[in-house]
Design a protein that fits this description.
Shape of chain A: rod-shaped
Distance between the termini of chain C: 27 Å
Structural class of chain A: mainly alpha
Radius of gyration of chain A: 22 Å
Chains: A mainly alpha (about 60), B mainly alpha (about 250), C mainly alpha (about 240)
Number of helices of chain A: 2
Strand content of chain A: under 5%
Number of domains of chain C: 1
Largest sheet of chain A: none
Helix content of chain C: over 70%
Number of domains of chain A: 1
Order of helices and strands of chain C: HHHHHHHHH
Radius of gyration of chain C: 19 Å
Largest interface: A-B, 35 and 44 residues
Shape of chain C: globular
Structural class of chain C: mainly alpha
Number of strands of chain A: 0
Oligomer: heterotrimer
Largest sheet of chain C: none
Strand content of chain C: under 5%
Distance between the termini of chain A: 43 Å
């Protein structure tokens, strides 16, 4: 297992590259999620207050 | 037949379709990535010349391919948007840009960490990396222009013109840098030639490329759904969505 | 505007529109000669900064020279581009121009021509003089001047697209730079590369031909893209 992480001496480079890629994708997904949350909240404010729950609307 | 095409051209009908597609592409991407990473990190043998550092190509090459592919796709959506004046096409172009920029960044970063142990330097002004850097600036430009313009429709058209101007230039930029590089190329090993591939390495790369492509589709669809909510805010059908009512 | 006596197949308003726009912009530019002088001075100063910050050693300067002069030309172009449409936009003239029956692309082309005459051409004229600061020999200077002569119009043509896209926006100057500089890269590479090729004895025709081809493509395409961008900005 430790040889896997060491990558025969190249571990720093390999994992810096893979790690950065994983980090960047994670950031993209988190940013997307928070942007979606804000957008939904803002859209909520435009919904007129009424008791009815229309059947339409899907995820 | 034409009726079916334009049915999904409205944001209201595309939104649920995209929502159904995202899990398919997302989970497929994850699965493909798992297989590809297993091949790349475990199964594929150590390279004779470059040692285990070469394993970076399993993210570097897919990211680089995606960065260029996504720009072309973005340009195609922009062309549709300008030609047919459709909102959704422009929204798709808008949604793809950040994912494309991130792919470009991953390509550049992984390329730097591949270059250091293999050729002794994090950065060299070879044709591919330099063109990739300029591609990153092109993405930044489109994103910056989008942010700078308040009116979404003006932003759609302006970014469309900019993207199309850029896409014409991408091959020119690559060619010019290639030219410049061959004139200046010293005795260093060519950075543009990947080591000749063993079949297993090629397979790993192709699987990772497919994973990257599916990921990009899922991320872009997810983002376009957010863009739709942001821009169609106030429309009646938005108010009917359960996720909006529960926000 | 076009006289019936000289009507020709091409002169269905296109040439006269170009002529009118170019003449008008030239007249306006010459009224604010100070501004033009300042931009030229900027070019001279930027070129002088590099030896001060790097080295006065002649061989190194000669190597750097073409690149520095080209980059300075790029920066000068960026500095002057907002002026292309902003003035007319601010007082409503641009809308009138867009509404006129003459092809907007032709009018835009006339403006670009005037821009090059007041910005690019002076840079070309000064280049041989400034090149002496960089210990460049006669042949290099000649090639550099030729390259700038072909290349600076491309800078104006591509720059016009950027200037139109960023009309009226916040921080339009920096945004313009971000948008246009990547597109300028091939011009820079072939333009400076022509001098390098001459120095290496490789022959300049390839670089200059590519620049010339770029100029042709830009001449045909850029005015239309810029006109489209102007309409987008005016809506």
């Amino acid at each position: 297992m430790s040889t896997f992480f060491a990558m025969n001496g190249y571990g720093f480079y390999v994992w810096s590259a893979y790690g950065a890629a994983a980090l960047v994708l994670a950031i993209e997904l988190f940013a997307l999620r928070s942007r979606r949350k804000s957008a939904l909240e803002e859209a909520r404010l435009t919904v007129p207050e009424d008791a009815g729950n229309p059947a339409e609307g899907s995820v | 037949m034409s009726l079916n095409w334009f049915k999904y051209a409205s944001p209201a009908s595309f939104y649920p379709l995209a929502g159904k597609l995202i899990p398919w592409f997302g989970w497929s991407a994850a699965l493909l990535a798992l297989v590809g990473l297993y091949i790349g990190l475990v199964v594929a043998p150590t390279d004779f010349q470059q040692g285990d550092a070469y394993r970076i190509i399993f993210i570097h090459v897919p990211a680089a391919w995606m960065s260029m592919f996504l720009y072309v796709v973005m340009a195609a959506w922009s062309a549709l948007a300008l030609g047919f004046n459709t909102r959704l096409s422009a929204m798709m172009a808008q949604a793809i840009a950040p994912t494309g920029a991130l792919m470009t960044f991953i390509a550049l970063w992984s390329g730097a960490f591949w270059g250091r142990p293999t050729w002794g330097t994090y950065w060299a002004w070879d044709a591919r990396m330099t063109s990739e850097l300029i591609l990153l600036f092109l993405y930044f430009g489109v994103i910056a222009l989008r942010h700078a313009i308040d009116d979404p429709r003006r932003a759609d058209r302006a970014c469309g013109v900019l993207t199309l101007t850029g896409v014409v230039n991408v091959p020119i930029i690559y060619f010019s840098v290639q030219w410049w590089n061959t004139l200046h190329q010293g005795s260093s090993v060519s950075l543009t030639k990947a080591p000749s591939m063993a079949a297993i390495m090629l397979t790993g790369m192709l699987i990772m490329s497919l994973a990257a492509w599916f990921y990009a589709i899922a991320a872009s669809l997810a983002r376009v759904r957010v863009v739709i909510i942001e821009r169609e805010r106030g429309a009646a059908w938005i108010g009917g969505l359960t996720e909006v009512r529960n926000a | 505007m076009s006289t019936a006596a000289t009507a020709s197949p091409v002169d269905d308003g296109v040439l006269s529109a170009m002529r009118w726009a170019a003449a008008r912009d030239l007249k306006l530019a010459l009224r604010s000669r100070g501004e033009l002088g300042v931009q030229l001075l900027f070019y001279v100063i930027v070129v002088s900064l590099f030896p001060l910050s790097t080295t006065p050693e002649r061989n190194l300067l000669a190597t750097m020279g073409p690149g520095v002069l080209w980059v300075a030309a790029l920066l000068s172009s960026l500095l002057s581009l907002p002026r292309l449409f902003a003035g007319d936009h601010a007082d409503g003239t641009l809308e009138q121009i867009a509404l006129s029956p003459y092809p907007l692309a032709a009018l835009v082309y006339g403006k670009i021509l005037a821009h090059w005459l007041t910005t690019g051409l002076p840079v070309v004229a000064l280049a041989p003089l400034l090149g002496l600061q960089y210990a460049m020999d006669g042949e290099s200077l000649a090639v550099l001047t030729a390259a700038l002569l072909i290349g600076t119009p491309i800078l104006s043509l591509l720059g016009a697209i950027g200037a139109a896209l960023t009309l009226g926006l916040r921080a339009s100057g920096s945004l313009l730079a971000l948008l246009i500089l990547p597109l300028y890269v091939p011009v820079l590479i072939f333009g400076a590369g022509a001098v390098d090729a001459a120095r290496a004895g490789l022959g300049v025709s390839a670089n200059l031909s590519l620049l010339g081809a770029g100029l042709l493509v830009a001449t045909v395409g850029a005015p239309f893209a810029a006109a489209a961008a102007v309409r987008i900005a005016l809506d």
